[in-house]
Amino acid sequence: MKGLELCERYFRKECLQVLEREFGQELNRMAIGLVGDGSDCYGYDDEISRDHDWGPGFCIWLTKSDYRDMGNTIQKVYKGLPHTYKEYVQRKISQWGGGRVGVLEIGAFYEGFIGKYQPPRNNNEWLLLPENGLAAATNGKVFEDPLGEFTKIRRALLQFYPEDIRLKKIAARCMTIGREGQYNFPRCIKRKEFYAAQYAETKFCVDAMSMVFLLNKRYAPFYKWIHRSVKELPILGDFIHHSIKNLVGEGDYHAKAERIEYISQALINELRRQNLSNHHSDYLPDHGPVIQQYIGDKILRNVNVWFG
User: Considering the entire predicted model, what is its pTM?
Assistant: First the structure.
């Protein structure tokens, strides 16, 4: 059983009646689910994942005032819930795994991932948010939220970046994908700078996948999951997943350069298909400034094209 399914079954079969008995109508002020760090929140957990921060457990999110008034009481009840479910043993908390389950304040939860207790209010705030934090703050599943306060923030974040921010980030990815892949990688190989070449290849891969997430209007997760999750995207997802896999597994540097160019041209074709660029060039950095000119916010449009 996947961890997310396990945690929801544990909540509904073993814990819900206890919470109803202990808190009655106050239960209607609690949002309950599993969202945040951990492979189980993404649905990517496997047998290897079970050695730490995996097992029966869930989050109870409270408003600031409710957390102040009854957070400690609810946490005591939570700690007294059954520690196992069927054959699944108690969750093992690692050194850095604390705070992933249990009673949490809504604002503090979101602030831990995006540095803010509420959705961004302007382009500057959006531009500075960590994308993997946005992915973690919106993954998983909310089992119950009668009050709706937790879900209200979640829905606002799931609407994705404002279009001007998306365009800014796509423009910036054009610059770095082209620089590291189309330009720097073959030059490093010619100079036999193999460490630099490996770094350029890795940066190319990360930013190419990031570009595909942006083209799909989805947040890219933590690096460990980005390659696995990109194949789920409808636009270029399966293509980029297999292309990156083949690129990384390729042993010949010249063949790698050809694969990099093949991926780059696919990205350019998609930019044209989405009417984001009409530039004739086969070099991605030529498309960045073109895309940036579509940004409506004049201040953002004038920010250095490499930033994003």
Answer: 0.95
